[in-house]
Amino acid sequence: MSLFITFEGGEGCGKSTQARLLLKRLAHHNIPAILTQEPGGTDLGRRIRGLLKRPGTTHVSPTAELLLFAASRIQLVTEVILPALADDKVVVCDRFTDSTVAYQGHGRHLDLNMIGMLNTLAKGDLMPDLTVLLDMPPERGLERRRGMKDRFELEDLSFHHRVRKAYLKLGDAEPDRWLMIDASLARAMIADIIWGRVRALLSKSL
Q: What is the tens place of the pLDDT at every residue in 28-69?
């Protein structure tokens, strides 16, 4: 019954909320599942998350940023994701390798071949069974954010438009893996759409 489900999208799209709602629904149906996130999910990952997201962290080289994300991912895959899948659990992950392609590859203009090699190093043959993309114009997503903004939320609008364009391109290239949803829909409606796809995958895995 193990499934690996990732959530992707720009800032303020609601992916973290939907990831939590999916975990809650899985628990309601007595399906063993865990929720984790990138960067984070491990002690090392949480420390890296603090470095990468903190608005006061300035002058971070894009390549250094990329390598820190890769380090966090390697630890998460090894320590959390693979053991949970081996234990026949559903793993729900808030961001994964596609975030690196969108943010560091297209957002930061880093070499996509280099990113591909690092992603492979970090995850091996592991691929999501389903990737949920919550799509929303960056202007609307950023308006949703309250309080202090992190390093990525403080990027200029052109950066966020590049990230969105990259996500849409990734989704179009692999329609069987990606579930692309208009993030402006009602929260309950989005949750039902996601659950419909996950339930179908669970039925196939039985």
A: 999 999 999 999 999 999 999 999 988 776 688 999 999 999
State how far the Cα of 173 lies from the Cα of 171, in Å rounded to an integer.
5
Residues contacting residue 9 through CB under 8 Å, at least 6 positions apart: 15, 133, 134, 135, 136, 141, 167, 183
Residue 206: which pLDDT band, with cuts at 50, 70 and 90? low
Encoded amino acid at 40, one letter: G
Sign of torsion over alpha carbons 205, 192, 15, 109: positive
How many distinct structural domains can be found in the chain? 1
Task: Indicate which CATH number applies to the domain containing 113.
Answer: 3.40.50.300
The contacts of residue 29 (CB under 8 Å, 6+ apart) are none
Inter-residue contact 18 to 28 (CB < 8 Å): no
Give alpha helix (H) positions in the chain.
15-28, 43-53, 62-76, 82-86, 97-99, 112-123, 138-144, 157-173, 187-205
Residue range of the domain that includes 125 = 3-205
Question: What's the whole-model pTM score?
Answer: 0.95
